[in-house]
Design brief:
Blueprint lengths: L7 H9 L11 E5 L4 H12 L3 E3 L2 E6 L2 E10 L3 E4 L10 H23 L11 E5 L7 H11 L5 E8 L2 H7 L5 E6 L19 H17 L1
Parallel strand pairs: 1-2, 1-6, 6-7, 7-8
Antiparallel strand pairs: 3-4, 4-5
């Protein structure tokens, strides 16, 4: 496989080929991590003939260095911290302040993306969690922990590209991990895309609506 994707939609189409064994199964649901995971997840859901929804997770950035993840939170009150955080002696009050801010944003996004529609029931279903890539894995680990609370029949993590050690570590936490590309020198997710512009809320809305329309028409 060419180790560089044109954009997220291209990545999703190529990732879907590795998930073909889940095609047309009525118990499958695809959940994209907003925002960047949703275009990837849309292509996976369309290829598999599966419903698409969002699963909101928020990164907890180091105070003053928000691009680096201390951990992440997800729906259901789940908080996952990176083990490395302990060595930086970040005060608990500072961690709690970041978490409170991100919890408010998480609630806002859930309302924004889903509106009045209830969150999908995941109990007894095959859940495929999709993002545009895995670096530290904190966001995906939080999402997986939150989904596990709903007792899915099977939990699959699927990404176009991921750090090899992160993909390997996740295999101990979920039923299946599909990382299409695991470059030995990883550095950053965006380096593996030709176009990696930020996904906006309007695109998330449009993709969710397009998936619902396609399923209604089927």
């Amino acid at each position: 496989m060419n180790e560089r994707f044109h954009d997220r939609r291209d990545a999703g189409r190529r990732l879907a080929g590795l998930l073909a064994h889940y095609r047309e199964r009525p118990d499958v649901i695809v959940l994209g991590l907003p925002r960047g995971g949703v275009p990837v997840a849309f292509e996976v859901a369309q290829a598999l003939g599966a419903p698409l929804d969002v699963f909101v997770v928020r990164k907890l950035g180091f105070p003053g260095h928000e691009e680096f993840a201390m951990g992440a939170i997800a729906t259901g009150g789940v908080r996952v911290m990176n083990p490395e955080v302990a060595q930086f002696n970040v005060p608990q009050a500072a961690i709690d302040a970041v978490a409170a801010r991100e919890e408010a944003e998480l609630a806002r996004r859930e309302t924004l993306y889903r509106g009045p529609r209830p969150a999908p029931k995941l109990t007894g279903r095959i859940v495929i969690l999709v993002d545009d890539g895995l670096a530290t894995g904190a966001t995906m680990r939080a999402a997986a922990a939150a989904v596990q609370q709903q007792a899915p029949a099977r939990l699959v993590v699927a990404v176009p590209v991921g750090a090899p050690e992160t993909c390997a570590a996740l295999r101990a936490e979920v039923d299946e991990v599909v990382c299409a590309v695991t470059p030995p020198v990883f550095r950053a997710v965006g380096l593996w895309y030709g176009h990696f512009a930020q996904t906006d809320d309007d695109e998330v809305h449009a993709l969710l609506a397009a998936n619902r329309a396609a399923r209604d028409a089927a």
